[in-house]
Amino acid sequence: MPRSLTGLSLDYGKVEDEIAGFIRKTVSDAGAQGVVVGLSGGIDSAVVGALCVRALGKDKVIGILMPASHTPAEDTADGRALAIEWGIRIYEVCIDPVFDAFMKSAPKFKGENRIATANVKARIRMVINYFVANSNEMLVAGTGDKSEDILGFFTKFGDGGVDFLPIAHLYKTQVRELGAHLGLPERVVTKPSSPQLWPGHRADDEIPAPYEVMDPVLVALFDEKLPPKEAAKKTGVEIKIVQEIVKRHKASAHKRSYPPMLGNW
User: Fold this and answer.
1) 166 vs 27, 113, 159, 255, CA distance in Å?
2) Which end of the chain is more exposed for a tag (fewer CB within 10 A), N or C?
3) Where are the alpha helices (DSSP H) in the chain?
4) Taking the CA atoms of the chain, what radius of gyration do you get in angstroms?
């Protein structure tokens, strides 16, 4: 376990005010009528939803639940309960029929690529978010955090396909602290992270270490700019985990930048 959470402590009242102001300015500058938030029942979307409601008011926020057949019922219930508590409009769209129709029409390859198939689900959700947003002259609020962004732990043109990112400057452990500050239910604040792109899918199955272990390493590497060996020594995390984080960050650079092109404009 990491020796210290140095660099992760924040004044969450100040953070709340800063993000609310950012949301209001972004929506105003775009001339939009409000925002759409995809609600998964997890901590990131819950925090973004709560902040959007506080920034804009309930009439300018739409929540969308997009479960698949394997989505845990409690996750959908948590997302629905939050939307009802906030008093916002809610749409529920099961993505199974869209996914099944796509897979039936898509080219067939030998063997199933789990990631390719899972990414289809994330991209279907992006399309639904934008359909609702465009239909209501709204923006799509992203729910990604800094830990996921650094690792590239999101689907390009899926959950990475958004108009703005209210909490992308906060690490996952900070998002949980902010959620507690905002008064979100403890079961949501402490719920294990999961993209839920296949049955039983959990973030811990794919990332190098749990977020409470990784986040101090991310601070050491990307905020304090320490070399991997020094980051490992400072945090007490195994060097192989630190090296894997660096490897994933480099491999996912394309997700965080505009596509390559020839020439300038």
Assistant:
1) 12, 32, 14, 18
2) C
3) 12-30, 43-56, 73-86, 96-105, 114-135, 146-151, 172-181, 186-189, 211-218, 228-235, 239-251
4) 19
Cα gap 60→136, rounded to integer Å: 10
Give the distance, in angstroms, between the CA of residue 201 and the centroid of all CA atoms in the same chain: 15
Give percent of the chain with pLDDT exceeding 90. 83
Q: Give the DSSP letter of residue 38.
A: E
Which domains can be identified in the chain, with CATH numbers?
Answer: 12-204 (3.40.50.620)
Question: Terminal CA-to-CA distance of the chain, rounded, Å?
Answer: 48
Q: How does residue 112 score in pLDDT terms, banded at 50, 70 and 90? A: confident
Question: Any residues with CB less than 8 A from the CB of 127 and at least 6 apart, and which?
Answer: none
Cα separation, 242 vs 247, whole angstroms: 9
Instruction: Please identify which residue in the block is written with the tokens 């929540």.
Output: 63
Reduced DSSP (H G I as helix, E B as strand, rest coil) percent helix, strand, coil of the chain, to 5: 55, 5, 40
Helix 228-235 vs helix 211-218: crossing angle, to nearest 10: 130
pTM of this structure: 0.92
